[in-house]
Amino acid sequence: MINRRSLLRNSLASGAGLSLLAGMNASTANAADAEPIPIGAALPMSGTAAADGIEFKNGLDLAIEEINAVGGILGRPLELHIEDTAEMGADVVSQAMQRLIDRYGTPVIVNGYNYGTNMVEMDVAADSDVIFIHYNTLISHNNKFKEDPDRYYGSFQGDPPEYYYGPGLLSYLNGLIDSGQWEPANRKIALVASSVEYSIVIANAVREFADQYGWEISLYETVQFPTNQWGPTLAKIRQDEPAVIAVTHFLPQDLAAFMTQFIPQPTNSLVYMQYGPSLPAFKEIGGESVKGVVYSTVVGCLPDDFSEGFRTAYREKFGPTAAYLTGSQTYDGLWKWALSAAIAGGAGEPYDGDQARAVSASMNRLIYRGVNGICRFDPEGQSAYTFPAQTPDASLGMPHQFLQHQDLTQDPVLVAPPAYAKGSFILPPWMS
Questions:
Q1: Distance (Å, whole) CA 404 – CA 408
Q2: Which intervals hold domain Leucine-binding protein (predicted)?
């Protein structure tokens, strides 16, 4: 079986696509002596989202190490520069990105997520003719791109927008029922969102499609962001017991607090949460109370043979509890850009619109199989297609993954979609 690690080792000899990085004009041996290509990243290295910021940096570090090992981009090594976005927000993030461009001349900026920006990052990238790749997971990216595709040609969302979490969750729930894995007491969903765009859009999408899938929204509750006091919300949930509690808030420490406060007096409800359970802090804080929680992500490292080398290398480099599910995002984003830049003849530099457009065109043409699955950009919004909501072909879209915490000594189990699943859903212990 050829894994990611062996592909990297053998790419130059085999003539695989990665050999483009070693270059037509420079060898791997002299790449270290060439002028580095500055890579920018505006990441929350401190503040409430620091756990993710660290993993986003880890993913970039590993990708750069591997890319440089095969000769960089056309003989030029990559060099990472980071600006901390701390508590994030439009002003903080836009200023961080501008510093990366002005101080280091970065032709590309690869971010994880930064919330509260209203996608102002796209304007910074457009004004400077740099490629911008991010994982904000927001439909507002698509909407802004559609307003002026020519201006925002260089802005890419490396994963599908959060909007697709809504119909995706409802489809998954119906699949559990249809397959006989779960028999709900009713068809009620209690929706709990936090006061940030990402969370609200997901909750609204669930509410929008609920009736179409045969569900009723029995509660729609919005909480502060961040929050760890769930008592009032849980009291409302217990007044009208639902079959599903869907929490679209995403900070792992807050979601763990929800479970520790839910378990002493649980309802007979499947608990679905958003993204945060993928981070080690969720399990570390929540302990046994999180066993049985289902969560999903439209982007995350798949537990398949293809990603085995990445998963091993990531934890060897960053520790046994490092969250490769998060680091895989920026890892894949940088790899896809590097291949696209090599195909286009070089990375370019800020304010070189012609070369930036050439790289952008390569990124749109390249269907990239990374450790998160397939990244193929939707030309209507320049974000990754999602499977199965946007395309029924698993080879043309990034899978919307559903995972469950089952054995807390192991990683969560991928239970859907079937094309990628490594196990089956189990009834949570508070429901047995």
A1: 10
A2: 36-380
